[in-house]
């Protein structure tokens, strides 16, 4: 099968924690040998786009200048397009704040804000939750970087962004606008990076509820790799149907 591009997830697909998944280089090499452009596409908000490339190099993953789309960068791009003059309160990682500032928006450090952005936040405590609650007022827009339930690490799963987004949602009784996977905004941004028609692209990732569902919603073929969050038995129990199910990224060669 020939594809205009492949969108490749990172956590659980290329790396797990701070270690490369052994078959990742073989899979990436197969895509390059088949002349399929690669876009790395991740809900991870802990790294900026240039930091992703450094991390790939550091763990021994061959990187050849491919574009990177992160949920943090995508969130900043969404706000720059839809709320460019907003004061933005962030309950999330420093990376999210930096991307929002780089997009020309103003960060709100206290009081009410026009927009509240929430995502994974390993610094959260009662005071931080209270400050976020008090940032809401009439008309405040609630934005989530993503709603990943968990993130795969070397020693097992850890809570994902949804743990923090749901805490805020429960306090304010307001559903967020979600930017990251499985929303198709991420697919559209990735396709634009390589000038491809999203419908002719392949989404490769380890999570049925984010990677595969986004691809399904965007009208793409999808490949679930069983090296991270989701396993083959999860597919049997789910209404989400990947086009392909493989053990790891190295098996993608058989799909091309």
From TrEMBL:
Q: Which PANTHER family match?
A: 4-NITROPHENYLPHOSPHATASE-RELATED, HALOACID DEHALOGENASE-LIKE HYDROLASE DOMAIN-CONTAINING PROTEIN 2
The entry's protein name is Haloacid dehalogenase
Q: Which NCBIfam families match?
A: HAD-SF-IIA
> According to its record, what are the GO cellular component terms?
cytoplasm
Among InterPro entries, the record links this protein to: HAD-like_sf, HAD-SF_hydro_IIA, HAD_sf
Q: What is the lineage of its organism?
A: Archaea, Methanobacteriati, Methanobacteriota, Stenosarchaea group, Halobacteria
Q: Which Gene Ontology MF annotations are present?
A: phosphatase activity
């Amino acid at each position: 099968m020939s594809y205009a591009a492949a969108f490749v997830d990172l956590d659980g697909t290329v790396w797990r924690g701070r270690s490369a998944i052994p078959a990742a280089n073989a899979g990436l090499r197969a895509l390059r040998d088949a002349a399929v452009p690669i876009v790395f596409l991740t809900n991870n908000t802990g790294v900026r786009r240039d930091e992703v490339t450094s991390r790939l190099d550091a763990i021994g993953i061959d990187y050849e200048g491919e574009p990177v789309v992160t949920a943090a960068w995508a969130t900043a791009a969404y706000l720059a397009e839809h709320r460019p003059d907003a004061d933005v309160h962030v309950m999330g990682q420093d990376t999210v704040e930096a991307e929002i500032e780089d997009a020309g928006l103003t960060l709100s450090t206290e009081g009410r804000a026009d927009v509240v952005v929430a995502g994974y936040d390993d610094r959260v405590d009662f005071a931080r939750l209270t400050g976020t609650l008090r940032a809401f007022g009439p008309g405040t827009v609630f934005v989530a970087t993503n709603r990943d339930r968990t993130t795969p690490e070397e020693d097992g799963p850890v809570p994902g962004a949804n743990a923090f987004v749901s805490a805020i949602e429960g306090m304010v009784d307001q559903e967020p606008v979600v930017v990251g996977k499985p929303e198709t905004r991420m697919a559209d941004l990735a396709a634009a990076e390589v000038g491809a028609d999203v419908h002719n692209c392949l989404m490769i990732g380890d999570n049925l509820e984010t990677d595969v569902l986004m691809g399904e919603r965007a009208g793409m073929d999808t490949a679930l790799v069983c090296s991270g969050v989701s396993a083959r038995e999860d597919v049997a129990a789910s209404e989400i149907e990947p086009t392909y199910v493989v053990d790891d990224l190295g098996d993608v060669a058989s799909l091309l």
